[in-house]
Design a protein that fits this description.
Number of helices of chain A: 15
CATH architecture of the largest domain in chain A: 3-Layer(aba) Sandwich
CATH class of the largest domain in chain A: Alpha Beta
Order of helices and strands of chain A: EHEHHHEHHEHEHEHEHHEEEHEHHH
Largest sheet of chain A: 7 strands, parallel
Oligomer: homotetramer
Strand order of the largest sheet of chain A: 3-2-1-4-5-6-11
CATH topology of the largest domain in chain A: Rossmann fold
Distance between the termini of chain A: 31 Å
Largest interface: A-B, 55 and 55 residues
CATH superfamily of the largest domain in chain A: NAD(P)-binding Rossmann-like Domain
Structural class of chain A: alpha/beta
Shape of chain A: globular
Strand content of chain A: 5-15%
Number of domains of chain A: 2
């Protein structure tokens, strides 16, 4: 390299895609805005675990290498959405303007999500778009899509789509995103509103998107309690896809607290009698979770953390109230009644006041980076070491945060260059080579052809 | 064993001494009452970590083997003190009556503590006896002591005692306790009221007692933030005594919480800006800590936990208010202001309402058992693995509770019979043999007497 | 009086009856125990407004003049029930023993309540007896009743009772209580568990008891949100009975707070956006309110206070969770989001930790005394001035506590001897005369004949 | 009026001055910004009691008639200061720009405050300017002042000023403000940082300004706990000035709550045992109150409210912590331990999270308007009916908020045109006339001299 008289044009740094289901929601908008802001040095990476020293040499794709796109059923453009969030105090004033170009670029990569036949609520609803924004039925969605300039899958319009049609449409959108942006890889992250627990045989929307991720050869992260890849009908596909995946349900506030307080009580042999909680939140998330079925899906994870860390589920309920005037700010009150020595009755109460989007967004960026790198290192299947991030982690890992953090550091070690696995260079500085190798094959073929990429994965 | 035609009289189960400095205080009274109650099956061992499965085979002395005694400057007999605690809701009604015999037995083993010359407050004040109970000066204490039937050191009365005189008097009390009760070992635990940070050259009372523990060949546990063995003048003695010791300042409430919440913030890369706290408590502890000097000693530990777990000390103060009407019940409010992603400002508040004595007592029993067993296994010096129990642990161990718990389990493994060290059997079932076998090895006892026991220490 | 050479035997001080619906519940037991304890000077009258100076000369019946009885469907005798409450920390230890005689006397005056035909839950369930204690159906209850030695209405057994039969049975029990105890008057107070809002035409149990009170010529107080006298079918009877009555739903904790905080926000022109609340409680009340229909009845009152004091109902829900391990202790968390100047967003949170029975019992005694005295002074109809005590007061009085207190003082003034009305002496010292006048007529006739007593009332 | 053929030029609407001590502090800046915003219809008058219906016909000067000026020792111009507050979330983004003209106009009317000889901290420090902004000593302040174009009192520069010199300088500034703006009257409101309780004979800065207000013929409002007009040396002047005045120490958060909760406990005969509080706040106010002497001044008022409303001062302390990272946002935690019936122990906790400036500013506007109108109606001396606004009200009015509100409404009635007093029309529509008509009636000026200003005021 040093001796060459004429330096060749350096290969462009590899770029990686982050495809967000619910791409115009609060979480997605905050993640996209924040990624640009931190990459530009406008803000410190507070809340991003992957920017701490422990992850410095893990070969994670730099924030500046991330390209965003996704599905959503609402139309509000990202720059406008970001302005709304700034008005609500979620984003700093002035930041949407400062990163307007990046928001606009991401917005251009958002494709309409469409409800499958017979679905009562459609897929891809924005994190806080609300059901009202999803009036379009199948035909309507199809017609919108067929007119969309950049939308693949237009050919499917005009007829009633099967589930597989929808999966193919979504997968085509993702492949198109990867190809046009010449990406070295992409991850699909579900940050849409929680959907009710599925009933009946039809795949819920979240699972259609998850299947599309597999078909497009992309790792998949489910940041919500929705079914996603967790649906029985997708079990085999998830098993054989040779792709890493992670989930479910990002652990951002009340459950995060529970995952450190539960172990404390157990380690101190204090007997928790009842653990009750109330969550107040507005925004679209509050409205979505006012649906008892969605709340039930959410609460399952919360209660599992207690049962796992305490050894048994204590008494107590969890309420999620929609309080529109709180906007994106959430207050969670927990009341823990426990017994001490000789039956003395004691109480711990916690009040957590945070902005859910601001808590979730850095974790979404963390997960995207970690999963992209895991894919590059050939790691496949459920990423059990990511339990740190989830209320209801895949696999049977620990429920206590401290042990989950230790697991995360173990994964970090595996992601280092010298840790074995496919000998590709770091995401950060050698993605070009990766792309070179894969160049002739275009984007990975979802149905079997993604040899180069796939082979990496399957090792 | 099975073939012997004439079974020898089985050796009596070994008994172990727990010598409490502040033996008539709330913590001591609760520990003595609770030990009897749990040993008798009247209450489950809630709050006792050493009764969980992880410690089942560590050879710890059973609760029924513990014999209590100690120093105090107040006169209120333990049965009466226990009734007061029951009236205040600290102990269950009826329990003092149920274990009256055990309380009376322990009370008979309490010897008067005496203030050293020139001390403004004397040593051995009960955890909540208050300064008012300590009017006795040196001569007074001496005269009381010289009349006490079971009190060693009566010979010292009538003259001005030096520091060394006091140490000798206290050590003689302990040796006498061990000898008369035919104990296989004893541990000295400081549960007296917090004393102001020492100024000037004289040893504070807590250090006189700590020195007496060493001189009597006993492990030492400092459950308070007082100087104890931590005094520079005792450094060499602690080093060369060949005895295990542990401290300082039991972690029972607010700091316990901080030791799990601090790591949570750090692991999630959330920037804690300010951590403020207010403690309300009555009882003698509230009164003692209303003394700013004592409070300063206490708060040092609290703040150290934050600095250690967060990486830097945040803004914020800690208040300790004496609120007599709260009695032994404590309320601790913590307010944590932290930054999330993109500078979003969030708040966590915690309110901990507990009974300090009920929180402390099971830890005192844990520490006594662990330290007695460590002594038996020949472990010497600071027990770094006991950081789980302390605000300001000896050594340089971790400050996060989860890591401290892992350390504790490591210690538990070392305490097992098959873990090496002196191959004595468990405390629980063979203490008598231990003493027999170890007789000939006795370390030179500083005061000449209990050679048997001494041999244990030196291994 | 002063001139008579031979003093006649002074007339025995008048005694007054307090007939409790749910007489073996926590509230009733606490009221009966506490009345005896305060009358005997064992405890100060904390929480009893009628024992403050403002009520000193209102002629209220002294606590020592009150005689208790009532209906209940559970069998646990009052002394035993009181012991349970002492074990749960609701009553001081030792107090049930100290007032055992009074508890026993009251227990002997308790008559079985019986479910009306077709009712799914019977009337007269104890405040915390739970539905499980009410297995007896109509016939069963009848047969039990027909065997009860002291029970009137035995004649009704063996046939299907009409609503009117039940009312007559209950009224007969009350008349019998008054007659046998030679009472100068009696008041009926409903402290039974909340019943679901009535549906269909049948009178709910609480209304049967209320009708019985009228028929027996007694004032009626509804301390619960149940229908009671508020049922449309009883409107005319309540109007024409010539008896004072008061209700509904004692204001003991969260709503009490709301009735002072709501006016504060309004007076300061601060815009409350959302007021959310969660109540955790155990005991039978928690279980009863876990029934959504009962909770709905309860929450109506809570929300009305906000709407009335704020001018409009804010956003926000109220949850009532049954947390059995909390026993009779209740925790209520309120979260108030309000706007300040220029739209600044502010939050008030309150946490109320109290014992509901201990909060309610002194109010029950207050209400019994005030209503008995009002009856004596000839006041009839709804006692609007008692809004101070209720979540959902009869009449259209103010909702702000301060104004309600002013109203209460107005009533106090009307109750004084010199305030006009029937010129009977105070309840406290001249009841004998009252009884003398009524002597020949026996107890008031429920069906029109209660001339003397009735005439007093109607004046 | 309607019949006149030629309408005369309508008199210009009267304008009224609000002279703020600490005019560049957070409270002043918020008040000035908010007055302009509400007057322009940009925001509703949330938090302004005088804009509620009860005050509609009281003849208060409209917000649009208020002209602002004042003293301060810091230089940061109001528009810049407002931008800082917007960045800190105290003011809405964009609002400083929207009312830039009004801020600039007010800023031009701010004159430098100057420390009197020997004072360690100068007068007129901004509410949150901090001590660091007040480096200028007497000469420095003088030289600045002598260069100030619009500053009266320049003649005093260059020599050591006596207290009276300073008073005269300040009074001249106020008179000049009134004259140049052709104001129908002006009120002086102290919103500067709390100063330590005065020691020694010299008048504290706040009292110099108060004396200047009297000398300039202006009503005076002390929104802080500083001495102001409350200094013994000013008692006679206050008495004879013939001017209304009000104070001390605006009741904005924790004490506001206490003034409704205290009465609740008392009215319910619940025995408060201990009331403890901790305040966390940043901004300059936090720093100022970190000075124990200033905090002591502040806490006096807080505790007085409890003693007055409960009947006796309970146990418990109040802490005020400077937590710079909280900025202008304040959190106040209160913990109330109280006894219920039969000694049951209960707890109420409150957490108040507010922005002090936003809470104070509308009250400042209220007070300015009420006091200006009271002056117009000829009301003199302490305005006892304004206790609603203060922690430590002048006079011996009630301490309960509800009664204070009733008093305020009484004052409102007195302010109406038909309520007697000088029969001038409303401030709002005929101020010009008022001045003309009232000219000949001028009150005797206490100091004799400042005829120009006095005549204006007196008209």
């Amino acid at each position: 390299m040093s001796a060459e008289p004429f330096l060749p044009t350096p290969p462009p740094a590899a770029r990686f895609g982050v495809w967000l289901i619910g791409a115009r929601g609060s979480v997605a908008t905050t993640a996209i805005t924040g990624c640009a802001a931190v990459a530009a040095g406008l803000h410190p990476p507070t809340g991003m675990v992957t920017e701490t020293a422990d992850f410095a040499d893990c070969g994670l794709p730099p924030l500046s290498s991330l390209v965003f796109g996704g599905h959503d059923t609402v139309d509000c453009p990202l720059p406008k959405r970001a302005e709304h969030l700034a008005a609500g105090g979620v984003l700093p004033h002035g930041l949407p303007t400062a990163v307007h170009a990046e928001l606009l670029a991401a917005d251009r990569e958002i494709r309409p999500g469409g409800p499958p036949p017979g679905a009562t609520t459609g897929p891809g609803s924005a994190g806080d778009g609300g059901a009202g924004a999803e009036g379009a039925g199948v035909e309507g969605a199809g017609s919108v899509r067929s007119q969309g300039a950049g939308s693949a899958g237009a050919e499917a319009a005009g007829s009633v789509r099967t589930q597989d049609d929808w999966i193919e449409v979504f997968a085509a959108d993702i492949r198109d995103f990867v190809r046009r942006n010449d990406l070295a890889g992409a991850v699909v992250v579900n940050v849409a509103s929680t959907e009710p627990a599925p009933a009946g045989g039809a795949l819920p929307a979240s699972s259609l998107y998850a299947a599309a991720a597999l078909r497009a050869g992309c790792p998949y992260v489910n940041f919500t309690p929705s079914a996603g890849l967790h649906h029985p009908a997708l079990a085999e596909a998830a098993e054989t896809a040779g792709l890493p995946h992670a989930g479910r349900d990002g652990k951002t506030g009340q459950t995060l607290l529970r995952s450190v307080l539960g172990p404390m009580f157990r380690q101190r042999a204090l007997a928790v009698r009842a653990w009750s909680g109330t969550n107040l939140l507005g925004g679209g998330d509050g409205a979505a979770l006012a649906d008892p079925a969605a709340a039930a899906a959410k609460n399952g994870g919360k209660e599992r953390v207690l049962a796992d860390t305490l050894g048994a589920a204590p008494e107590g309920e969890v309420h999620i109230d929609d309080v529109p005037s709180l906007g994106d700010w959430k207050t969670a009150w927990d009341h823990v009644a426990f017994d001490g020595f000789l039956g003395s009755r004691m109480i711990l109460q916690t009040v957590w006041q945070g902005c859910d989007s601001a808590l979730a967004a850095p974790l979404v960026l963390d997960l995207a980076r970690l999963t992209l790198r895991a894919r590059q290192k050939g790691i496949t299947g459920p990423l059990r070491e990511l339990g740190f991030y989830f209320k209801d982690p895949v696999g049977d890992g620990p429920a206590a945060l401290a042990e989950q953090y230790a697991d995360l550091l173990t994964l970090a070690a595996r992601l280092r260059d010298d840790a074995g696995g496919p000998d590709g260079p770091d995401c950060g500085d050698g993605g070009g080579e990766v792309r070179d190798r894969r160049g002739p094959h275009g984007r990975p073929d979802p149905q079997g052809g993604h040899d180069q990429h796939g082979s990496e994965v399957r090792r």
